[in-house]
Amino acid sequence: xxxxxxxxxxxxxxxxxxxxxxxxxxxxxxxxxxxxxxxxxxxxxxxxxxxxxxxxxxxxxxxxxxxxxxxxxxxxxxxxxxxxxxxxxxxxxxxxxxxxxxxxxxxxxxxxxxxxxxxxxxxxxxxxxxxxxxxxxxxxxxxxxxxxxxxxxxxxxxxxxx
Length: 162
Fold this sequence. Notes:
The protein is of the alpha+beta class. 30% of the residues lie in helices and 34% in strands. Strands 1, 2, 3, 4, 5 and 6 form a six-stranded mixed sheet that branches. The mean pLDDT is 90.
């Protein structure tokens, strides 16, 4: 079994800019990692399953989609039982799903011994979701583009009440 903690994030500001030809918007934002985490545990299985205390998260979950994407991209058929301990409130804008997906990419790279570079992993993350590259980056950042162009910045010193 392999376990990983997946952090939440807070946008301290978010400017939505011009709409792109792909339907997404360019943004400028400050992304701050915060001390709230989900936990994912992966164990080999005959087919992909997600065990979570929230039935609404089990259907079309981004964690399972990330595993299926990896299998398709690398011509593999690796399946996992994934236990998700949900601490990041879903639908709160704290990036829980994107963080879970990015952490799944990290876990699969390790579990499948792919040894993909951070740059390659970030490209995969961008294909799965717009916030995923930030969680692959793993540092507080100023973000632009669709949130995939990241520049490291220091942590804010203020306490944050969520």
